[in-house]
Amino acid sequence: MFKIENKKTGFFLLLLFLLSLGIRFLIAPLPGHIPDFRCWQEWSRSINKFGIINVYEKRVEPTSILPDYLPSYLYILGFLGLIYQKFFSPTFELNTPTLIFLLKLPAIIFDLLTGFFIFWLLRNQFKLKFWLAFLILGFYLFNPGLIYNSSYWGQIDSIHTFFILVALFFATKNKFSFSWIFLTIALFFKLQSIIFFPLLFFLNFQKESLKKLIKNFGLSILTAFVICSPFILSGKIFQVIRIPFILTESYPYLSVNAFNFWWLFALRPYPFGLSDKDNFLGLAPYFLIGFALFFFVYFLLIKNILKNNSPKIIYLIAAFIALSFFMLPTRIHERYLYSFFPIFILILNKEKRFWLIYLLLSFTYFANLAAVTPFWKSEYLFNFSPFSSWPIVFINIFCFFYLLYYLFYAGKKNSYRLTNL
Known about the structure:
The protein is mainly α. Helix content is 66%, strand content 1%. The chain has a two-stranded antiparallel sheet. Strand 1 (279-280) and strand 2 (284-285) form a beta hairpin. Helix 1 (7-27) runs parallel beside helix 5, helix 6 packs parallel to helix 18 (352-372) and helix 15 runs antiparallel to helix 16. The longest helix is centred in the N-terminal third of the chain and has 28 residues, at 97-124.
């Protein structure tokens, strides 16, 4: 554990967490992203009425949308719904500030858990002095986009990101069995966590024998079985298996309001934008080009990490994977940049320009979320102009290419910069 030098530093650390928590609690009762919350309230009520194993097939209301999430978050919704119905609303009244607050609470808790873990890593793994670690922690806890995501919008990106960060930490310590377990937990909260599995595979393959790699993969499968055990035992596991296929085909658009490279071609926001199944200049479908670009960059990153896999390089490449996933494929949501920030912030002190990249992307991420679900209107917008957001897109593109340059050119030109991260 990290040391608290004296009561003064302990007081300031506690104050920092309490202030960030206070801001989040102040915002949390607001309705946020109405379509998401309509689903989560209905799913929570459905679980408490019909049971968790029936959540994928039974609706409380005929107009309710069946869940398209994997089971982990549904367990949390069921638990929160049980508390709400027992202590606050026996009839399970929807859209109350209490229910909205309860449903946002897990994301807020994991926001703070991630902050605590970041501070622990900075002090223990990277040996930073207290006040520098304190400053970096402040940039995480008071990042407006991250607060907006969990406390106003009410999304749960903080949950799977926490488990991704823990998995990466164990990978830097060559404790890959724990990495596979925690990354699998992350996957069952949010499917996009899958982008870190190839990175973990190659790190594990490089450090351990094939036998141990297979054993660790088996632990991942076992973790998945434990998470899905209610559905396995009830003979309804295929309802879970079909969820990834539903998700991959749910949003066949160039961009689901993500201000990334494809937003320049989207012309209109989701759900009115161009389909990514159309051909780009008659050559190939947009989605195929987008994922080809992502996997090409991924391949180059893997080559880089095989040469130098120090902890800071692992975190830098993992952060760039998160940024590349936001920028290059089609069908990307505006929220998907979240995982970049807690990973990238760990190496801010190693390069002065990283602070600028972090601040710029924090601004664009907040602007992206606020453009889609404005705080001042509390409604989901479908009619804003993509052209007005192009300056934000160009900032994102600049940050992407700067980090790409840093990894593949600056490092070769001056190997000291990479090897001493």
